[in-house]
Task: structure prediction
Amino acid sequence: MAPSADTVVAPASVEAHGRAPLRPPPARRGGVVPRWLLPALALLLPAWVVLVGPLVWTPDPVRQNVTARLQAPSPARPLGTDQFGRDVLARVLYGGRLSLGIALVVTLVTAAAGVTVGSAAAAFGGPIDAALMRLVDVLLAFPFLLAALAVAGLSGGGFHGVVLALGLLGWGSYARVARAESLRVRALPFVEAARSLGAGELRLVLRHVLPSAAPALIVLAIIRFAQTILAIAGLSFLGVGVQPPTPEWGAMLNEGLPFLERAPHLLLAPGLAVTIACLVVSLAGDALRQVLDPTAG
Result:
């Protein structure tokens, strides 16, 4: 007789052993840990390398030795030396500290400014919302690198010039995403219920809107972090960023350009460092996006 709709069919493992399996099915084994742990570790990998690397590889990145200039990579000098005899590997590692440090500062500053503007626009609405969003539209209409080049050049360049240029020009995308997410979350029933119970705007934003919008903003911050690394290298390569002899990936590319044919490792080393750092951060951001929003394609 065929089993009815109410009949419970025992799994094969129960029939064979008399009890249900103790471990979950293979498709679900591991839970959420493998999903977020790997992209999180990948995201921290560049920072770990540039923080620990100089402790393992200790040559002075700015010390010159003209008798050892333009040496090819060797076991003693894995990435060779530059035109002043400085160790390229040491300069890449120390330059990574500076590049990633500036990118982190710029990302935090622009994220804070953009989220504040976007949340304020969604909260106040009306003319304030329109004025703030028109400002964002004007900001995003300019070619980013050209505008950053102009601002950094006018401010004198260097570390502070790069932070100022990228900080002033990089918050628009955060404002747009924060506003869109705030408007979406504000229309949800639990926010309407909190408002009907007397919650003020500040409490709504801090307790309900921002936590619900956090996944989209975190993913955006990671993507912008990778773009900021590339922008810092571009500004330094064009001569308005970090200035020699301070090691920085973009400045190293600029210094090694005249020696492309004779010593290509001077460009390959910092170029690969920029590429790998941006690639790892971008892939980690995409993986975290799938974890935070499984419905995203």
